[in-house]
Amino acid sequence: TYNKSLRRCNLGSNAIGFEAASTLRDAIASENFSLQSIDLSANDFVDSDVSMLLPALRSNRTLVQCDLRMNKISQGSESLSEIASFLRRNEEIIFGAVERDIETGESKGK
């Protein structure tokens, strides 16, 4: 079970590595995942850890920030480019819906 009200999570500087990346992948893929921002900086992630997150991020529609600085990820990694693309897509989905609500005067209680 995942906390549906949690919006930001700081897991930076915990050296969580592969096992946590695997668990995180499962959480991100869950339809109950509601995080908008996650800090994964300085966690000894390597390219394969980041690649493992990609399938979950493809289906996720809530995450708009993911800090992966200070990890062991290759400069110019394709996985990082894909993650950035998914985050931008989510930002457009979320903020586009908010803008439409404002324009139409509707409120969804969020």
Question: Quick recap of the structure?
Answer:
This protein has 110 residues and is mainly alpha-helical.
Could you estimate the helical fraction of the residues in percent? 40-55%
**Main β-sheet description:** 3 strands, parallel
Mean pLDDT: 86
Shape: globular
Strand content is: 5-15%
Which structural category fits the helices and strands? Answer: mainly alpha
Question: How are helices and strands ordered from N to C?
Answer: EHEHEH
Low-confidence parts: none
Instruction: Give the helix tally.
Output: 3
Strand order of the largest sheet: 1-2-3
The number of strands is 3
The N- to C-terminal Cα distance equals 21 Å
Radius of gyration: 15 Å
Please describe what this structure looks like.
By secondary structure, the protein is mainly α. Helix content is 48%, strand content 8%. It contains three helices and three strands. It has helices spanning 17-29, 47-59, 78-104; strands spanning 8-10, 37-39, 65-67. Strands 1-2-3 form a three-stranded parallel beta sheet, with no helix packed on it. β1, α1 (17-29) and β2 form a beta-alpha-beta unit. α1 (17-29) runs parallel beside α2 and α2 (47-59) runs parallel beside α3.
